[in-house]
Design brief:
This protein is mainly α. It has a domain at 37-99. It has four helices and no strands. Helix 2 (39-60) runs antiparallel to helix 3 and helix 2 (39-60) crosses helix 4. The longest helix is centred in the middle third of the chain and has 22 residues, at 39-60. The model has no long low-confidence stretch (mean pLDDT 83).
């Protein structure tokens, strides 16, 4: 058997302590929490999606779908003054943070 073809296997480990690894993990968790969607962002995204879908349905299916567009717009308008929207309560229950 020719042993000259076998290459030595070396295992290199990162040069850091366990504490540094814990700090890095905590930093990554904070970054993930900061990048998570907030209630307000989720509300805007949902309203935009529903408006675009209802406009498409109103154009290609039946004009009554435009009433859903009007409802979403009216709901956004009232929530601007009352600071309350049914979707916000749902998003809070889902665990989204205020922001």
């Amino acid at each position: 058997m020719n042993h000259s073809l076998l290459l030595p296997l070396t295992l290199t480990l990162p040069n850091r302590t366990i504490r540094e690894g814990e700090q890095e993990g905590e930093r990554e968790q904070r970054e993930m929490e900061n990048s998570a969607m907030t209630v307000n962002e989720a509300l805007r995204a949902m309203a935009g999606i529903v408006i675009l879908i209802s406009l498409a349905l109103g154009h290609w299916v039946h004009p009554y779908w435009y009433l859903l567009t009007a409802f979403v717009g009216a709901n956004l308008l009232q929530s601007a003054f009352t600071k309350w929207c049914p979707a916000m309560a749902i998003f809070r229950r889902l665990g989204l943070k205020e922001g």
